[in-house]
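so ive been stuck on this for like two days lol. basically i have the seq below and the ligand is 2-acetamido-2-deoxy-beta-D-glucopyranose, smiles is in there too. i just want the complex predicted, nothing fancy, no docking runs or whatever. if the output looks off dont worry ill sanity check it later, just need somthing to start from for the group meeting slides
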Amino acid sequence: MKAMASTSGLLLLLAVVAGGTSVLTAAAAAAESPKPTPWPHQFHSILFVNYSGSLSLIDLWYDWTNGRNFNIVQDQLGKLLYDLEWNNGTSFFYTLDSTKECRSAQLDVGILRPNWLDGAVYLGQENVDGFLCNVWQKVDFIWYYEDVITNRPVHWVFYTGRSIHVMTFEVGAVLEDAKWQAPLYCFKKKDTQADYKLDVGYLEPQLQSILRASTQL
Ligand SMILES: *[C@@H]1O[C@H](CO)[C@@H](O)[C@H](O)[C@H]1NC(C)=O
Ligand SMILES: *[C@@H]1O[C@H](CO)[C@@H](O)[C@H](O)[C@H]1NC(C)=O
């Protein structure tokens, strides 16, 4: 009994010492850990998306300068969907084919800020898609992988399982203004509008709100 008591006393002492050491290590690591590179104010990316086996390609035109963000989503052998988001919270989801579908939504937040990854927790390095990446996690909603050498995004995964692979990353590329015009039938009275899921695109609106909220804290 006595031996056991002193053993547990020793274990407790070791635990306290180890605990103290790990606090120091964590503080040192926090001071040194890499930060995610803010998004360029304007870029174009082609994204390969795998959402539980449903594949799509997204043309992403991020344009913070003009307060707008565009996801042009081609589902594999399926629809071509346009997901246009303005920084005033208005989004349009539409097709440009003969079905003339359109739905709009009003969110209480605008598009992602260039620094939307601020405050993400650094998880270390990992090889993804053949690139050595720094990895961060943001509020349990997204895991983000950035190339260690070029600082370009390579991959991100949402908690929903939506998995994004960055195929191209053209910094400074801007889509011409005329292409940002939602079609006329988006502005007519709701009559023949299709029942769209709001989560088309590379980012669920709800997720956008959460990430924006956490960035503003
Ligand atoms: C898509 O993801 C699923 C897992 O959800 C995986 O089994 C499948 O191989 C992936 N497909 C491609 C083309 O990456
Ligand atoms: C937001 O901006 C877009 C583009 O200028 C416009 O079509 C939309 O009506 C605006 N929404 C609001 C709520 O002002």
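Helices lie at 2-32, 205-216. The longest helix spans residues 2-32.
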